[in-house]
């Protein structure tokens, strides 16, 4: 199924959310670095002007900072798509229903993929587009970035390890990853990426990689991104709130909930990094290379 893609509007300010936090986004960047082709590596490094091994991870959180500037506030709604479904009974994303007038992450992936490929565009615009792609491929894999309920979980107050300042969205963004891998920095992200890369190549994710690339079509980025959003959104029903909001609200999620859900967080980060590598390979070479 193909979806009509519209041009992103210039300005919309919507509720603030961050997918995965710095640790998660940096991890996605490093995983992608481990799977891009040599030609794609050169393409990205040349465009970004960065020959270091951190060339993707170092720009992975740029979009979260940019959205809070005057110049970047238009991009706030591009970080998510608000699925108006009914978890935990039913989950599902509908592009026409859920991608609002202000845009969404699916439409943003479509538009910035087009921009980065257009060599007639100014270099600065193509650099910006690549940075957005690196970030939004991470965003779309966080289940609550594909969910409208309670502002993607932001309005569901929870506790984590005795700290009552968390909400369900931020637990999925940062708290569980922090418990797993430590402070958000490039060193810890690279370590986590190395572990997940091994799982992709020879471990428990190896049998999943073919499915991760299904429906990936550079000529139809909206359908491709919708497949990723639908995949992540399904976990809202099965994993994030399988017993409804009341089962997690004002509950400490650092023990049993963490144990049950951290494997899903890891798998989604792995899928995001692998798909990002394949998408960048398509942009740079015309083939996923995987």
Mind explaining what this structure looks like?
This protein is mostly helical and 290 residues long. The chain has 11 helices and 2 strands. It has helices at residues 21-33, 38-48, 62-66, 95-98, 105-117, 123-139, 168-181, 186-202, 209-212, 221-240, 256-285; strands at 157-160, 163-167. A two-stranded antiparallel sheet has the order 1-2. β1 and β2 form a beta hairpin. α2 (38-48) packs across α11. The longest helix has 30 residues, at 256-285. The radius of gyration is 18 Å and the shape is globular.
How would you summarize what this structure contains?
The chain is mainly alpha-helical and 290 residues long. It has helices at residues 21-33, 38-48, 62-66, 95-98, 105-117, 123-139, 168-181, 186-202, 209-212, 221-240, 256-285, and strands at 157-160, 163-167. Residues 1-17 have low confidence and may be disordered.
């Amino acid at each position: 199924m193909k979806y009509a893609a519209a041009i992103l509007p210039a300005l919309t300010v919507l509720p603030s959310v961050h997918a995965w936090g710095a640790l998660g986004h940096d991890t996605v960047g490093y995983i992608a670095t481990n799977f891009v082709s040599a030609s794609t590596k050169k393409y990205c490094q040349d465009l970004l002007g960065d020959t270091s091994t951190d060339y993707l991870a170092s720009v992975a959180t740029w979009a979260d900072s940019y959205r809070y500037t005057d110049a970047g506030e238009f991009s706030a709604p591009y970080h998510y798509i608000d699925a108006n479904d009914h978890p935990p009974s039913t989950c599902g994303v509908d592009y026409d229903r859920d991608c609002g007038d202000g845009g969404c992450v699916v439409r943003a992936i479509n538009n910035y993929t087009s921009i980065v490929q257009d060599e007639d565009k100014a270099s600065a615009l193509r650099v910006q587009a690549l940075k957005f792609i690196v970030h939004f491929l991470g965003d779309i894999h966080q289940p609550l970035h594909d969910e409208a309920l309670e502002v993607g979980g932001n309005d569901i107050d929870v506790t984590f390890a005795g700290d009552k300042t968390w909400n369900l969205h931020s637990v999925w963004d940062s708290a569980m990853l922090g418990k797993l891998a430590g402070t958000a920095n490039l060193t810890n992200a690279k370590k986590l990426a190395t572990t997940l890369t091994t799982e992709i190549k020879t471990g428990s994710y190896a049998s999943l990689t073919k499915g991760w690339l299904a429906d990936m079509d550079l000529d139809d980025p909206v359908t491709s991104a919708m497949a990723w959003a639908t995949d992540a959104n399904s976990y809202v029903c099965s994993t994030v709130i399988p017993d409804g909001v009341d089962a997690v609200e004002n509950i400490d999620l650092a023990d049993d909930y963490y144990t049950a859900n951290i494997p899903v967080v890891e798998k989604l980060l792995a899928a995001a990094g692998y798909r990002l590598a394949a998408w960048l390979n398509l942009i740079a070479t015309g083939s996923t290379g995987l």
